[in-house]
Description:
Layout lengths: L1 H16 L8 E5 L10 H5 L6 E6 L3 H14 L4 E6 L2 H14 L6 E4 L2 H9 L19 E2 L3 E3 L3 E8 L12 H9 L9 E4 L5 H13 L3 H10 L3 E3 L2 H10 L4 E6 H6 L7 E4 L5 E4 L2 E3 L7 H12 L1 H9 L15 H4 L8 E3 L12 H14 L4
Parallel strand pairs: 2-3, 2-4, 8-9, 8-10, 12-14
Antiparallel strand pairs: 1-3, 4-13, 5-6, 6-13, 7-10, 7-11, 7-12
Helix pairs in contact: 1-4, 6-8, 8-14, 11-12
Amino acid sequence: MHKLQILSYVFLLLGLLGYAPSALSSEYHYPAPKKTTSVPAASENSSQYPNKLRIFSTTDNEATHALILDFQKIYPRMSVTYHERQSLQIYEQLINDAKKGGSSADIAISSAMDLQMKLANDGYAHRIETNVQNTLPRWAVWRNEAFGTTLEPAVIIYHKPYFKDKTVPRNRSDLISFLENRPADLYGKIATYDIEKSGLGYMFLARDDSQFGGTWDLMRAMGLNGLRLYSQSSKIIEGVSSGQLKLGYNVLGSYAISQIKNNPDLGVILPEDYTTVFSRIAIVPKTANSPEAGRLFLEYLLSERGQRQINHNAQLNSIHPNVKNPNSLLNTLNNENSGLRPIKVGPGLLVYLDQMKRRNILKRWNKALYRP
């Protein structure tokens, strides 16, 4: 009966959250380096640390490649296996491994903050005793079990040539005013996440609903202008960069900002009224084959050295206060006047899994977009 309950819950999440798991996942192997020239003495002289690390992550391996290689400079006898998976795949795997009494990843990192928090809240994460988290913002750590690792804003993007002779909206109220004018050449050329298919998109809009009283006025204004819906930020960014789209709302800022250098026609705005920020959450699963290997990678990931790698090579954004982002736009996130509103790592995230809340938001969403 317990197995059926778990499976029922998983399928319920599939339908409710819009996480689209795939039967496929990619696996990358990093053999232990034969030689190294930059190993701290403490690591070199120690024979105590594990020799294998297994990682589950939703982040593209291309983005984390340099990060893993740098980690192996510190622990040169450690081989790494990196599993690139969908967020719900990670969630399912950790629960199933616990059910079967098997071993799993030594660390799991996912952009699905709500699912990661549910794992931690339900007892699937080790408590990690380390001083590294003391350097992080308080909102980014929960009970030494769930750790925010990045700082990633939801942004507005726009096609610069289209706005050459127009005032660029800098906040949500300005955006409503701009859309209510209904420029004829804008119809069908604005986009946002399809919250019925994207768990992250749903979380961003649910956050807006709690933070901005004009959220549904904004959605109605978008609907009147032929709003287009996508399940991935990358598609919106490509469309705005090329000019096929003119404006994108609640787009994942880490991806958009990394494209500015190669796409001069792409403009990015951190909304001045407030900027919603989410973080990829890391946990060391109770089913880890080597919790110590997971702890070592977590400490590295949250250290100043690891956070610099996140900034400069992973093209994500550092959460460490001593690490400056290479893009000046992102440095404003650390400014007290930036309007930064992070989604706190904690049980409050579980509200995004509430069925009734989701039904109510989807009902208002479809009504605002004039969809039956």
